[in-house]
Amino acid sequence: MNIHEYQAKALLKEYGAPVSEGRPVLNAAEAEALARELPGPLWVVKSQIHAGGRGKGRFKEAEAGEKGGVRLAKSVEEVVANVNQMLGKTLVTHQTGPAGKQVGRIYLEDGSDIARELYLALLVDRGSSRISFVASTEGGMDIEEVAHATPEKIVSFTVDPASGLSDWHGRRVAFALGLTGDQVKQCVALVKILYKAFVEKDMEMLEINPLIVTEQGQLKVLDAKVGFDNNALYRQKDIMALRDETEEDPKELEASKYDLNYIALDGEIGCMVNGAGLAMATMDIIKLYGAEPANFLDVGGGATKEKVTEAFKIITSDPNVKGILVNIFGGIMRCDIIAEGIIAAVKEVGLKVPLVVRLEGTNVELGKKIISESGLDVIAADDLRDGAEKIVKAVKQ
Ligand code: ADP
Ligand code: MG
After folding, report:
1. What are phi and psi for residue 226, nearest 5 degrees?
2. Does 250-396 match 21-110 at the fold level?
3. How far is CA 57 from the centre of its chain?
4. What is the whole-number distance in angstroms between the Cα of residue 27 and the centre of ligand 1?
5. Is 107 assigned a catalytic role?
6. What is the CATH number of domain 250-396?
7. Angstrom distance (rounded) from CA 83 to CA 48
């Protein structure tokens, strides 16, 4: 789960990290009141969407003006004008995809005098099963680009959880960032704060880009992007409360209500499969036959007819879906349950695209019988290869 920049900053502030003064606003009146409260003479008006690259992004609507999603303002009037231009508009950045994301809230914060822009991130390094620090002097830029063009400018190391974090790690970051004197001390303190927050809140990623040095020599967290481990959210009630459902794919949101493992993708073939491994194999074989999967979906082992029905409805609600492949190996999941779920869903929402069904395993004969007696226009498949071939052919016709 991801959260907004303003939420991430508020969280880091609780842990003692240096962040600018600011608050989220939902309309121009709130923005004006807050702008008068903040010291000025520089304000920063920041679109809150769950994607990076906002500064260099552009709005789809002409009324939003030519500038990006992060704008400097030199007066209260300018703040208000920019908030009016950006709120409700669609911001496209290199991380949103071409559809962009609608800006529902703005973060208004005090402007900083920036001397240097640096990069600092913490993430879970799956290879070593440790938390890894990534630091670079090239802040404010796309870190993937830095990694590609000048990999020597990125310093990375992991922390041994047995011995934990020490000042030495903080000094190592400070050295990588080219900090000296009092800034080293500030950096050691900040590294401790970030590590503590990361561990305690079950973060998966914490990216500060940029971490700045102000003209006055102070380190400051100017942008913060935080992602949490979904599997740990059950014990992070305060983090769960920060969830912004408008940022999530509506299909994925619906699927999460029914405890379905669904991930929306860009292709044209909807997949309903049981078991994550089989779901991956099904996506692979669709690609092998020259098409693209529209989703990953594992309906799970003990799914009910209702759950299967909901899964089918979610797949058919995707306008990109030109065909559906159901691929079930009945183990704990019984083929007759799947068959009943499909029929119930089709009765409710109709079937406007070709449907290929491959059933195997527990109660397969009963499952096949239910489908064939339903009168549904289903293309039966014998095995995985046959199923993939048939659905791709049906879609490409
Ligand atoms: P994004 O990474 O989504 O583009 P950032 O928050 O990193 O958004 O902002 C982009 C750039 O805007 C920063 O690299 C920085 O130069 C400038 N900026 C952001 N916040 C402030 C601020 N409070 N004061 C001054 N400049 C800022
Ligand atoms: Mg940034």
Report:
1. -125, 135
2. no
3. 17
4. 21
5. no
6. 3.40.50.261
7. 12
Measured in angstroms, how far is the CA atom of residue 73 from the centroid of ligand 1?
Answer: 12
Domain covering 21-110 in this structure, CATH number = 3.30.1490.20
- The answer to whether the CB of 214 is under 6 A from ligand 1 is no
Q: Does ligand 1 come within 6 angstroms of the Cβ of 52?
A: yes
Q: Ligand 1, from 13, 223, 225, 226: best to mutate by most atoms within 8 Å of Cβ?
A: 223
**Encoded tokens for 284:** 């692979």
Domain spanning 114-240: CATH superfamily: ATP-grasp fold, B domain (3.30.470.20)
Query: Tokens standing for 385?
Result: 């290869």
119 as an active site residue: the answer is yes
pLDDT at residue 306, as a whole number:
84
- Residue 361 Cβ inside 6 Å of ligand 1? The answer reads no
Q: Is 170 annotated as a binding residue?
A: no
Looking at all shown ligands, the one closest to residue 18's CA atom is: 1
Which ligand neighbours the alpha carbon of 68 most closely? 1
CB atoms within 10 A of CB 201: 18
What secondary structure, in 3-state letters, does 227-276 show?
A: EECHHHHHHCHHHHCCCCHHHCCHHHHHHHHCCCEEEECCCCEEEEECCH
C-beta separation of 362 from 330 below 8 A: yes
Q: Is 117 in the pocket of ligand 1 (CB under 6 A)?
A: yes
Give Cα 359 distance to the centre of its chain: 33
Note the pTM of the prediction, 2 decimals: 0.82
Pull the structure tokens for residue 235: 């014990």
> For residue 83, how far is the Cα from the chain centroid?
25
Q: Give the whole-angstrom CA distance, residue 78 versus residue 239.
A: 33
d(CA 300, CA 219): 48
Banded pLDDT at 240 (limits 50, 70, 90): very high
Q: Whose CA is nearest to atom 7 of ligand 1?
A: 223
Domain residue spans in the chain?
A: 21-110, 114-240, 250-396
Closest-lying ligand 1 atom to the alpha carbon of residue 52 = 3
Look at residue 397 in the predicted model and tell me its pLDDT.
79
Closest to 303 in 3D by CA, of 269, 268, 262: 262
Portion of the chain with pLDDT greater than 70, in percent: 100
CA distances from 323 to 35, 305, 312, 392 (A): 52, 21, 12, 8
Q: What are phi and psi of 375, to 5 degrees?
A: 80, 5
- For residues 362 and 324, what is the distance between their CA atoms, to the nearest angstrom? 22
Query: In this structure, what token pair is assigned to residue 261?
Result: 């493992």
